[in-house]
Amino acid sequence: MPRRHHQRDSGASAMPSQRQLRVGELVRHALADMLTRGEVHDPVLEGRLITVPEVQMTADLRLATIYVMPLGGRDTDAVLAALERNKRYLRGEIARHVNLKFAPEIRFRIDERFDEAERIEKLLRTPAGQRDLGNKTDDDS
Questions:
Q1: What's the CA gap between 35 and 50, in Å, rounded?
Q2: How many CB atoms lie within 10 A of CB 2?
Q3: Rounded CA gap, 36 and 118, in Å?
Q4: 83: exposed, middle or buried (Cβ count in 10 Å: 0-12, 13-18, 19+)
Q5: Distance of alpha carbon 55 from alpha carbon 89, whole angstroms
Q6: Strands 105-110, 63-70: parallel, antiparallel or unpaired by DSSP?
Q7: Interatomic CA distance for residues 116 and 51, integer angstroms
Q8: Which end of the chain is more exposed for a tag (fewer CB within 10 A), N or C?
């Protein structure tokens, strides 16, 4: 009986492996702990609460894309610039906390899912959205 070989799609739609997810979570926790404890000595980052909702790892675990969002969504450009300035230090600390063969390169992105979720929530609350969901609004009575 012939074996079927499944080829993984190399596009963005390919699901990450369990290993990628696990390493991404380890990197996320390590960075979140450093930011919470104030280990990054930068005037922009000190005293700010920064959420790290997700870290996506490449298949070879050499690149970590770290999604961040400052509390309230304010000063995203300044926070991103501060993280970029401290990238070398952060990479070294992540390498110390996460046991990998190679320390992953890191890049920071602002997590825009919060904005997208808010936009969808607003759409669902409109009269047209309520009508499509089958809920009665004041306009329907």
A1: 7
A2: 4
A3: 26
A4: buried
A5: 18
A6: parallel
A7: 16
A8: N
